[in-house]
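Course assignment 3, question 2. Fill in each field.
Student: A.L.
Task: Predict the tertiary structure for the chain below.
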Amino acid sequence: MSLEIRPAQPSDAPSCARICFEAFGGLHRQQGFAPIFTSMDVITRRVTNLIGDPSVFGVVAEDEGRIVGVNFLSESDPVRGVGPIAVDPAVQAGGIGRKLMEAVLQRTAGLPARLLQETFNMRSMSLYASLGFDVQDLYVLVSGRPSAQLSDYEVRPMIEGDLEGCERLQKEAIGFPRTNELRTALKAGIPWVAVKNGAVAAFVASPFLWIGSHGAAEDEQSLAALLGGAAQQAGKDVAFLLQTRSAGLFRWALANGMRAGRPLTLMSKGPYDPPKCIYIPSVVY
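Answer field:
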């Protein structure tokens, strides 16, 4: 094998999408979980958007003109987010994943980096640990249509004027902002907020698509109000990554008919402080 690691190009999108679809799909079927990417169209759109995003650095592994792996690094905010990473199932366990990770970690230039990996995938957990990532927290994907519990909250789609309040919650939760990423989501019209006494008490960047979502809340009640209100107003299921130590919120979700799905482990490289209030990570952190 004559392996070359190079920056991803727009023309690489179909090959990268196929690798992600086959690699993740095969792993999920093996473990008995529903696939994250339900069709080639879905993953092709996501990969195309990642490659075309100037705030995302993408690399591919190429063997004699054939792409055999791909990895991405989100650079929009102070902490770098790694993934998705995938290697062609035909050539897995040959060190390609390590080379793809080394390429994006070299790009971080010592800045903190984080990722979420599927807890049942011990191969990836071992790889990340060997590269200096530490296990920090356990999350579980929760989805369903909870009932609205608005009480004193106004739940609605986010507007530009909410950004300052959302940034305050981001800093309170994890110590730094993810405002650039949130502003991008706002342009697509997908974030929601729960407002109490004129202030943002909770926000979620994408309540209906957990992969690209992150959020924070002052307390469990505020996030429950947002999720219930968004689900009822939109008439569809919400989905988010729930910190398993948020026991009250977990029980609320289960009592409201929500389903617990796949577990994911948050791992970090570099400085890390545990969330100081309710925090929802996206698929990268």
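Instructor remarks: DSSP finds eight helices and 14 strands in the chain. The radius of gyration is 19 Å.
Grade: pending
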